[in-house]
Amino acid sequence: MQTNYPFQLKSLPYDYFQLEPFISKMTLEYHHDKHLQAYTDNLNKVLKEIPELQETSLIDILKNLNNIPENFKTGIINNGGGVFNHNFYFDQLSPSVDMDIPESLKTKLIKDFSSVENFIEELKKAALGCFGSGWAWLVEDNNNNLQIIITKNQDTPFKDNLKPLLNLDVWEHAYYIDYQNRRAAYIDAFIHIINWDVVANRL
Ligand code: MN
Fold first, then answer.
1. Ligand 1 mean position to 87 CA, how many Å?
2. CA 66 – ligand 1 centroid, Å
């Protein structure tokens, strides 16, 4: 990902139709070209006003929210988080269905969730239980333990000093065209198109 201001819309690592039937071309066109573009434009607008953060990487900005001038903080959290979270999400999806999980990650999932199946169930439960707009995450804490967490709106795990490995967008814009109110069906579909190599490489 491009590290600092001014940010440009990053292309998807696959074609728009390639995640069908799990996520439609139309959903990706809106989600990537409209929603992510808006977060990107709005982040640039905010950072235009904060020259001292223009050379700072987006991740460092999101890790050090106290360094953001108070009147710009909400704009950075919402739009900087929006840019980071969406690029992270799109990068970890794959046209290859039901990929194998690399051993390095599988071992850790089994250690912390007792089985891969149980981890998937816990992730689904968390994503389904997120009230309103937000994200479900697999993260690694400072003791190298894996956890599932929820962040609201466009908050990121960086604010809690956690390392993100996988995220699942449960804002309605991520699934409403394809699944309407059936968030569980979208979550089930999402699980099939995770690029586990990308996730494992984030360890
Ligand atoms: Mn989204």
1. 10
2. 25
